[in-house]
Amino acid sequence: MVSTRSAEQGRQWVVLLGRIGAVCFGIVHLLVAWLAIQIAFGDSAGEADQKGALAALAEQPLGGVLLAALAAGLAFFAIWQLLTAVGGYRWLSGRRQVTKRISAAAHGFAAAVLTVVAVQLLSGSGATQGDQSQQEITGWLMSLPYGQFLVGVLALIVLGVGVAAAVKGIRRTFTDELELGRLPEGTQRLTVRLGQAGFVAKGVAYGVVGVLIGLAAINHDPKQAGGLDAALRTLADAEYGPYLLTVVGLGVAAFGIYCFAEARCHRA
Fold first, then answer.
1. Fewest Cβ atoms closer than 10 Å to its Cβ: which of 42, 76, 83, 179?
2. Furthest-apart CA pair in the chain: how many Å?
3. DSSP labels, 192-234
4. Nearest-CA neighbor of 130 among 204, 207, 46?
5. Closest CA to 171 of 214, 200, 210, 143
6. Distance between CA atoms of 20 and 27, rounded to whole angstroms?
7. Residue of 135, 136, 154, 156 whose CA lies nearest to 146
8. Does the pLDDT of residue 45 top 60, yes or no?
């Protein structure tokens, strides 16, 4: 009985720290959105991805303190999501439960990577730029037997992630993970709208990343691959690109604000 109570208390602490981490995850997305909008107006030379967002934060007054707090929050979020991937979403079953757990694992892995990047920035060792890292991974895959085919498969996977995110937003399936009644009355519909805009915007961004990787596979040129920063800059260079990138940036900002609401009402 005591061990059961202790286990439940431990679980509650993990959930509490995870909710704090979700707020930090939202802050990172708000920073990315700000960098994206700066690129849309031609005012930014920095990387408009999660790593660039952390680097930009580190350069601000008290940046080291803020970055340390953010690193701790992201670590909490990573632990929460990885534990959720193992035993969460018990109110669901079958394929839907498996899909949700895979999504939680992906979020946990992403948060863990960002935690490592933040620690690297705090230690002064720096971090590999997102596009450079993507090009290195693509180049390594191409060096393997059937490498061009493997890069093509990677492109399809990333495209699939983008499509899944957009569909999740359009169909509002993310609401399965929320207890909207925990939010103040009048904010519930807004939270759903923010989630829709955010997931669709992330889907567009990941879709462009997938296209860039696909072009690298077709042309056998790893330098054509790129991460989120390259995807956003590709959007900026398109016809009506600054307007399109501004819309995507606002969508990413919407996702960041949605994370604040999700931190409060996500099902434990």
1. 42
2. 65
3. HHHHHHHHHHHHHHHHHHHHHHHHHHHHT-GGG---HHHHHHH
4. 46
5. 200
6. 11
7. 154
8. no
| Tokens standing for residue 174 | 């993310």
pTM of the model: 0.81
What the block records as the tokens of 259 is 């994370």
Task: Flag whether pLDDT at 170 surpasses 90.
Answer: yes
Write the Ramachandran bin of 126: left for phi over 0, alpha for psi from -120 to 50, otherwise beta: left
5 has pLDDT over 80: no
Per-residue pLDDT tens for 215-245? 888 887 777 676 677 777 777 777 777 888 8
Pairwise CA distance, residues 51 & 10, whole Å? 31
Euclidean distance between CA atoms 242 and 56, whole angstroms: 21
Write down the pLDDT at residue 59.
79
Token pair 């937003």 is found at: 169
94 class by beta-carbon count within 10 Å (0-12 exposed, 13-18 middle, 19+ buried): exposed
Instruction: Give 182-222 pLDDT, tens digit per residue.
Output: 888 889 999 999 999 999 998 988 888 888 888 888 887 77
The helix or strand, by DSSP H or E, that contains position 123, with its residue range, turns out to be: helix 94-123
Q: Is the dihedral of CA 58, 252, 17, 75 positive or negative?
A: negative
The answer to whether 255 and 264 have CB atoms below 8 angstroms apart is no
Tokens of 224: 């054509």
Q: What is the pLDDT of residue 127?
A: 56
CA distance 224 to 215: 7
Contact 88, 100 (CB under 8 A): yes
pLDDT digits (tens, 9 = 90+) for 130-163: 555 667 777 777 887 877 888 888 889 888 888 9
DSSP 102-113: HHHHHHHHHHHH
